[in-house]
Design a protein that fits this description.
With 425 residues, the protein is mainly α. The protein is built from 14 helices and two strands, in the order H-H-E-E-H-H-H-H-H-H-H-H-H-H-H-H. The chain has one domain: Orthogonal Bundle (Ammonium transporter fold), CATH 1.10.3430.10. A hairpin with a 6-residue loop joins strand 1 and strand 2.
């Protein structure tokens, strides 16, 4: 039996728990942003992902993400998706290490030799749970629950799992040298572009929603997300070392500077310092630093936070001007935040922080910057196109959109027969 590193293993179990907490945090965040008669629906969409995604992950999701690699030619479709050797967690027992290398053994792909594979699988499962849940904020109050379940299933299979393998599982983007420390590409960019595609397909709400019924719920959700994000980013090092500490600090700095930047912009432009603006800006900073957290200096994290707060603020303003009904600003916060985080990593990345990273444009490597930029384009097109097509196909099987009458009654009552408040309006 291997001798496990109890310190690193314990840390990863803690990080896994923190990332799990982010999904209930997201439910509270989104729940506060919608109207009173749609609270349970938007929260349930997050919680059902915790259950159903875990089922899919055990059956074949983990294997699709991490079995095989393109160097050895043991994955499928030329480095796009893993094989099914680990379906039902077959071949993984208490003695299996999470450290995986190519057949020659000279190139490490993922994991840590001192951490069991079952811990790695649990940690990655929490990422799989929250990513599709992010998208639900875009089509709040407009999608039937049955259609959402089908969407959740096939979006994981056709979009999320392939990108995890391509980026983190030894697939084509990993071999190409693209970097994504904790999910700017794999989580936020593709979820944000999927959200935009959903908005384009589902269209505007037929009934004006009063929205934002509980700012305290939004604040609670933001606090839980911020707290959980330390596990999301720092845990992605899969060890306790200086890179872990750097990622932890960078996470807080970017969130703080982004939140204050958004607050000051709103104060200047909208004439009042708004609490929801501060909270939204902090989430934008968290999303933006995610791909770069373990690859950049603390000074760069500060700049990334300021850029995130400003760019995401104006992205949301642009969305409003164009009339896109992205109900909870998923594209403007997570999509745009993920995009600029990937690009800024291509500028500020340095091997002085992490030897497993890469030097960005400011450190003399223009090729790495180009790879990051191209990956933004590829991932954005892929996620948008597959999401739109998927919704179109699902709509042929079962209706995706609600009628005006159903929107008037509210999704909590019409879909689930429950209400969050006895006086829901």
């Amino acid at each position: 039996m291997p001798t496990w590193d109890t310190g690193n293993t314990g840390f990863m179990l803690l990080a896994t728990s923190l990332v799990m907490l982010m999904t209930p945090g997201l439910a509270f965040f989104y729940g506060g942003l919608v109207g009173r008669k749609n609270v349970l629906t938007i929260m349930m969409q997050s919680f059902v992902s915790m259950g159903w995604t875990s089922v899919i992950w055990y059956l074949f999701g983990f294997s699709m993400c991490f079995s095989g690699n393109c160097v050895d030619g043991t994955d499928l479709l030329g480095g796009i998706v893993g094989n099914f050797n680990w379906a039902f967690m077959s071949g993984i027992d208490l003695n299996t290490s999470s450290a995986v290398s190519t057949a020659a053994g000279n190139i490490a792909i993922f994991g840590n030799a001192g951490i069991p594979m079952i811990v790695f699988a649990a940690y990655q499962m929490m990422f799989a749970i929250i990513t599709p849940a992010l998208i639900t904020g875009a089509f709040a109050n407009r999608v039937k629950f049955g259609a959402y379940l089908i969407f959740l299933t096939f979006w994981l299979i056709l979009v999320y799992f392939p990108f995890v393998h391509m980026m983190w599982g030894g697939g084509i983007l990993w071999e190409w040298g693209v970097k994504d420390f904790a999910g700017g590409i794999v989580v936020h960019n593709i979820a944000g572009m999927a959200a935009l595609a959903s908005v384009m397909y589902v269209g505007k709400r037929k009934v004006i929603d009063q929205g934002m019924h509980s700012i305290p719920l939004i604040a609670l959700g933001t606090g839980l997300l911020w707290f959980g994000w330390y596990g999301f980013n720092a845990g992605s090092e899969f060890a306790v070392d200086s890179v872990t500490a750097n990622a932890f600090l960078n996470t807080d700095l970017a969130a703080s500077f982004a939140g204050i930047t958004w607050l000051l912009l709103a104060w200047r432009i909208e004439k009042k310092p708004k609490f929801v603006g501060l909270l939204t800006g902090a989430v934008a900073g968290l999303a933006t630093i995610t791909p770069a957290a373990g690859y950049v200096t603390t000074s760069s994290a500060v700049l990334i936070g300021i850029v995130a707060g400003a760019v995401c603020y104006f992205a949301v303003a642009l969305k409003n001007k164009l009339g896109w009904d992205d109900a909870l600003d998923v594209w403007g916060v997570h999509g745009v935040g993920g995009m600029i985080g990937i690009i800024l990593l291509g500028i500020f990345g340095t091997v002085a922080v992490n030897a497993n990273g890469a030097n960005g444009l400011l450190y003399g490597d223009s090729s790495f910057f180009i790879k990051q930029l191209l990956t933004v384009i590829i991932s954005s097109i892929y996620a948008f196109a597959f999401t739109w097509i998927m919704l179109f196909v699902i709509d042929k099987i079962t209706p995706v959109k609600l009628t005006k009458k159903e929107e008037e009654i509210g999704l909590d009552e019409i879909l689930h027969g429950e209400t969050a408040y006895t006086d829901a309006i």
